Amino acid sequence: MENQASNTDPGNVNAEKMNMGKINIEKTNIKKRRPFTFFGGKGGTGKTTCATAYAAWLAHEGCKTLLVSTDPAHSLSDALGVALSDKILPVCENLWGIEIDAELEAKRYVGEIQDKMLSIVSPVIVDEIKRQMEIAYMSPGAEEAAIFDKFVELMEELGNPWEAIVFDTAPTGHTLRLLSLPEILGTWIESLIRKRRKSLDLFKMAGRFEEDLMKRAMEDPVIDSLTRRQKKFEKSRQYLTDSESSTFFFVLNAEKMPILETARAVEMLEKYGIPIGGVIVNRVIPPEAGEFFEERLIAQEEYLQDIERRFGDRKIVRLPLLRSDVRGMEQVNAVAERIGEIDA
Ligand SMILES: Nc1ncnc2c1ncn2[C@@H]1O[C@H](COP(=O)(O)OP(=O)(O)OP(=O)(O)O)[C@@H](O)[C@H]1O
Ligand SMILES: [Mg+2]
Question: Distances in Å between the alpha carbon of 284 and those of 59, 281, 289, 296?
């Protein structure tokens, strides 16, 4: 990812042609912005909309911002009305976007390990290694691990040139698994390293009188790869659990299921030590919505009170239901005008 900034110069983009529109608020003094902001929550509640609007707001504030989707079912392009890909692309002034391609990242990751393994093993077991790698690639979690790798890589790019990275995540279950990876895989990798060291000791004993064998044992690429991965996880865990670096916002609607799911997810993230910025109640029906919504408004009021009771010790931001879907920069900006509140 070297020199991303010059390859992705937003000066190349004709903002006028892309109809980027304007955010009609004065620039504010961002007080509580963190470098990494995650938006998560139940399916369809408005995660992509909020992540996109928040990133647009930061860009408006003059903050160089990278908007990242870790959801395999990407929809940043739809929300922005700008085609994105698995490469970082400029969107408008101060804003870049990328949709991580999990399948591609998983293939690349497993492929790299396979190449390293094949370079040290005897030709007799090449087919066996290939078969094992195929299984590793198909195994549950491989794509998540690969997405995680990619987002750690992006986090490490902070300041070069991005000052903030905003993550649009997949629905709750997937994201929780993703965020718990450093904790779970960290221990697993440790045990793998220990096992590998043991077998290497045997290898070294066998190769005591053979220089080539000894050399191969000393420069073991498997340990090398595992150790690097372990360090990456450790670093990302530090980022994710540091309240000065990261913050996680839950997007929910004033309905029963999203409230219950959010309550469970908040508990999980707290367990992993991930700082929670607050909750965004999206699609709040405005009181002037009319007679047709009367009953819904009564139910909504109860759910809003429930949200206050459950999450009242955190920041709660309400976003109104708009007349149409949030598609394209103009509508994203309309949400952006309100979402800056999460930093207030
Ligand atoms: N406040 C709002 N008013 C009107 N429409 C909205 C609002 N917020 C989001 N939408 C629309 O609702 C739909 C779902 O929103 P969005 O894609 O942001 O949800 P999501 O949580 O990212 O969904 P998924 O779980 O599928 O990723 C989109 O069509 C979006 O334009
Ligand atoms: Mg989404």
Answer: 26, 7, 10, 10
Q: How many domains does the chain have?
A: 1
Q: Which ligand is located closest to the Cα atom of residue 172?
A: 1
Q: Any idea which of 26-30, 51-55, 84-88, 289-293 has the lowest mean pLDDT?
A: 26-30
**Ligand 2 centroid distance, CA of 344 (Å):** 25
Residue 174 resides in a domain: yes
Q: Which atom of ligand 1 lies nearest, measured to the CA of 320? A: 1
Q: How far is the CA of 36 from the centre of ligand 2 (A)?
A: 18
Indicate the pTM of the whole model. Answer: 0.82
342 contacts: CB under 8 Å, gap ≥ 6: 54, 249, 277, 278, 280, 315, 317
Q: What's the CA-to-centroid distance between 280 and ligand 2, angstroms?
A: 15
pLDDT tens track for 61-120: 999 999 999 877 778 999 998 899 999 999 999 999 999 888 887 787 777 777 776 766
Distance in Å, CA 142 to ligand 1 centroid: 28
- The pLDDT value recorded for residue 340 is 84
Q: 50 with 39: CB under 8 angstroms?
A: yes
- Residues that place a CB less than 5 A from ion ligand 2: 47-48, 75
Q: What does DSSP say about strands 89-92 and 246-252: parallel, antiparallel, or unpaired?
A: unpaired
Residue ranges making up the domain that contains 292: 4-106+154-179+246-343
Which residues are 246's β-sheet partners? 36
CATH number at residue 26: 3.40.50.300
Ligand nearest to the CA of 252: 1
Closest C-alpha to ligand 1, atom 6: 325
Distance 45 CA to ligand 1 centre (A): 6
> Does 282 sit in the ligand 1 pocket, CB within 6 Å?
yes
Of 37 and 30, the one with more pLDDT: 37
User: pLDDT (tens digit, 9 = 90+) per residue, 242-270?
Assistant: 999 999 999 999 999 999 999 999 998 89
CA 87 to chain centre: 15
Give Cα 52 distance to the centre of its chain. Answer: 13
Residue 207 lies in a domain: no
